[in-house]
Amino acid sequence: MDERMSELRARIEEALANAHNKEELAVVWQNYLGKKGQVAELMKGLGKLSPEERPAMGKVINEFKGLAQAAYEARAAVLEALELEAKNRAERVDITLPARRRPAGNLHPITITKNEIIDVFAGMGFEIYESPEIEDDDHNFTRLNVPKNHPARDMQDTFYVADDIVLRTQTSAGQIRYMDEVKPPLKVLVPGRVFRSDSDATHSPMFHQMEGLVVDEHITLGDLQGMLDVFVRKIFGPEVKTRLRPSYFPFTEPSAEVDVSCFQCGGKGCSLCKHTGWIEILGSGVVHHSVLESCGIDPEKYSGFAFGIGIERIAMLKYGISNIGLFFENDLRFLKQFKD
Amino acid sequence: MKVPFSWLKRYVDIDITPEELEEKLFGCGFEVEELIRLDAEIDRVVVGVVTSCEKIEGTHLHLCKVDCGEYGRDIQICTGADNVYTGMHTPAALDGSTLPGGVTIMAKPLRGIPSAGMLCSGDELGLNEDLYPGAEYYGLLDLPKDTVPGEPIAPVVGLDDCIFDIAITANRPDCQSVLGIAREVAAILGKPLKMPETDYRITGEPVENFSIRVEAQDLCPRYLGHQVRNLRIAESPRWMRRDLALCGLRSINNVVDITNYVMLEIGQPMHAFDRDTLESSEIIVRRAREEEEITTLDGKSFKLGPENLVICDGEKPVALAGVMGGLNSEITGQTKELLFEAAKFARDSIRKTARSLGQNTDSSSHFEKGISEYSVELGMERALHLIDALNCGDIAPNRYDCDAGQAKEGKTFRASLARINAILGIEIPEETALEILRRLEFRVKKDGAFLKVTAPRWREDIEVGEPDLAEEIIRMYGFDHITPTFLTDSTVTNGGKRPEMKTEDRVKRALCSSGFYEAMTMSFYAEEDLDAMHVAKDAPERNTVRIMNPINANFTIMRTILAPSLLKVVVGNLKKGNTEGRLFELANVYAPKELPMTQLPKETKHLGLAAFGAEEDFFTVKGALEDLAESLGCCFSYERAEDVPYLHPGIAAYVLCGGERIGCFGKLANIMTRELDLPKDSKENYKIFLGELDYEKLAAHIPAQLKYKPIPAFPDLTRDLSLVTSEETTCGAIEEEIRKACPQVSRVELFDIYRGIQIGLGKKSMSFKISFRQDDKAIDQETEERYVKKILGNLKFRLGTEIRG
Fold first, then answer.
1. What is the ipTM of this complex?
2. pTM (2 decimals)?
């Protein structure tokens, strides 16, 4: 019996070693370890033994069976690993092949810039408000302290669509509409398209502005500068400073042009700031009495400040764009460069 | 506004450099756009003395030895000028020197003879006769004999000067003159202003039988006239010619020069009539009559109307008021007696006349910006002073002065320094504030806690009081004194976008995630752009807001649809080699409520879509729309669109939301593809899709508030059905019938279309995956069979559809 078992064991080991895949392994199982396999045959042989011999021999055969099964499992594990390795090898890809994608688009740089500015002012409590792009003379000029014969009308080349109806030349027109709706204390930001008959590298007949207005008691020119300081630091960087200098707008008095210290050279002078260290970014001032009065707000009680930001101007400065026309050409090679 | 530094210095003792002055002017609200140095382009040009000079035989040249002081006592220079002589002092441009116009002079042989530079004419130095006598002589500039060899040329010929080109803001017409700027400079420097002299002698008896009458007082609130007799027309003195020349004006004769000089110096346009050409002894200022004609000094004739103001000699116009004099009353060399005019004309009247006639003159420009009555008076006094000082004629005693009864005083108001400080947000020392106002020639008197302030008469921009004074004080005190504060005293307000703006952001982001880039195009285009889209002449899109004064022929109407703009963007991209892309624009279109317009037009936001490239087809664009609808929580359905003029009648659809038509999309019509401005051989291959939705209609269907629905307790049951149907039957029709037949259908999805012999000619087989759902219980086999039977029965009855065996 011992002889038979050791011979069988040698055959099983050989058969397992020769099995190179799952199918061959299954045959080995069938031949040796299955119900009708040779190990089972051994078990059947027990019947021929005397009842005294049986338990001892049964134990021996069972042990043998256990060993054979373990050998089988070990071989199966090796084959499994080999197979997985082969599969992995077969499935291997060239990871440098081009990606397949449906890329997302993006917002226009003007929208991105607009939203950035809106975020800054919304955080300071400004409501965002939109008003018509085609305006009457009253809202675009007269109630902004630009009466019919005022020379300031010449400051802007206005498109007329009827005798008293214009394409709005400034989002300031929205100030008036807002103050008709909402009484102080108020903070509002009016973004939108504006139109002027002007066209060159830095002027487009259509462009975007954002008008800011604060009306409350005890508002000062200092508050205007303080708020603009926050704005420019958020938009251009924490080191950037503002400078106010006298200017003229009919709807503010005093009026001030606002420059920022050049964020490219830090104020030392470079081509961006035309070697002055400062870049002009917006116009502002204390709201003119007559503007408040035209909206039924008592200028003796309330005061305020207003500012007008050219969105293209900010975007051109931020992104280093020198020609305003690019914004409206919509060349995809241009549009694809901006990320929100 | 051009102001020569040398001229300015006559009124103020300026002890700082032009650069320092530029900086100070800038800080006070006067931006110097350009500081023009007259000698900017001149370098290494010195006084040379010709020590010997020989004609070179056979040429037009002279060989000279030139003494240039420290630069060389014996420099050999050839010159072609034949006025050269031994002992001449003349400008010598040395080797490596530069001259105006970017000219560089190098030592080089002329006709083989070495020449170490060039002797110059006045013209070569950028001089003219008015700037330097003899400058226009054809030949070398003959300098005085007291000039020193080697001395730099600029101071010798008066080019060591500069001109400030200053941007004057619209509120300061009083600074459109050398005196006006001098006044600011005096205030800035805290120095006295030396006023130009205005005294003159009166000669002879008063003029009789002459009068001036202003009929149109609304257009001419002030008119001064004064006669000058026994005119002695001659050349102007050198200093005047030089001042005029520095400002770009040529000298004509003493009388004409005086009018120009006063305009530049005082800012008051003056006019002089030849008294003898006036046909009556009356001057009338009135509106022109319909069709009345005038020929102005430049020989141009105009037909006028009541909107134009004219000066008449009783009957005929002799000047177009404030714009230009008439040819008929021009001052000539023979003029014996003249009438000076100094007036204030209404700004908008002059502007309209100048614009409508295309006659924009220095005079009209001054009047458009605004003239104060102070300058009318000062201008007249100054002109008469110059007449007398220059001995051009005898000044008659009578002054004609027509006014509309207005006050001849500056505006007076009460102001409080505390309130000025409240505007600025800082405490300005009282003494400083008062000093600044006095320097600006405001009269200030303390009146208890208040100030009684009188503005100077030339400051017609001062109107409100405290804000004006705050502005004057802070610009002189310096904006750098402002302390930035962050709304220390103000009320907290609730900020942010309104809900409809947030919805727009959602729409834009949804489209971006479907691969669309946001575009921005002009709000206007031309009728031709609608023609190109084959929009019918009587279509509603032709009802447009028209721009009365367009900037060019491409931008004449406000757009009524976005499609033409986006198509242009697509074509532009294709031309540049961008072969595929997706674009959208969310922008207004405009429609007049009536024509001619008497109220604001209707502005409606539209959402325009464009997709192009080999990968695009009707269904990829439809997919983008579905994605958009889903992201907004809406549901779109479609109807065939055969009548959108720019879309392919077989590949276009109307988009419906909640049963309402909100727009359309589809492939660009074949006819339009053919007409595109693209290379002929390639354009048939382009696949261009356009879409346009009425955004406001779409937005109205976006659910404002979403509510949670419980997740179905049981999974959906799905069943595949292949249906044979006629070619004409649409997928949409089948889907609709399936849903109608069985409300438990949760989803219908077409996954295959098959055509072949087995099916039969003119037929197709469409395979659908149908999902069933019942919220309250699982669907058993039996129920599912019942549903399928119902569906098939309905399809057969309504559409003649059979199940594929």
1. 0.85
2. 0.84
